[in-house]
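Notebook entry, structure prediction.
Reason for the run: the old model in the group folder had no record of what sequence produced it. Starting over properly, with the input documented here first.
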Amino acid sequence: MFRVVAVGGTFDELHRGHRALLRRAFEVGDHVLIGLSSDEFAGRMGKPHEVAPYERRLRELRALLTEWGVDGRAEIIPLNDPYGVTLSNGHVEAIIVSRETEPKAREINEKRAAMGLPPLQIIVVEMVLAEDGLPISTTRIRRGEIDREGRLLRRPLPHA
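New structure, fully documented this time:
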């Protein structure tokens, strides 16, 4: 158990994969810093779909934390770049990432080392798969392929 852990994301279409990532953060951390991508940062990410406004994503995230009864252990902060508070000499001890974003966590530790800061413990959460065995993602939800739980909404076309 860590005193303070960090997790970050856009958390658009808050889905089962996002919930697994957040749940793990609360399992291993007493206090969880949640970096929520700002509208500006989300716009610079080149996502292949529209992203809900920050305030809507924030409301949905807060509602989930309240539902889980962990809102008193969380601090949601705007994320304006891929690093957030992880490059400061603060109290963060670990970073929780998905398998997809694990390389960014390793980059963070390289930058921390160059700054003379100790490395963060990296905790990787495996991607949550939809019914079809492919990872749940906001992009797939926005395309209408799956719902937030990973259930197929339309059958993929057979390969010719």
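Summary: Residues 41 and 65 are 23 Å apart (CA to CA).
The old model has been moved to the deprecated folder.
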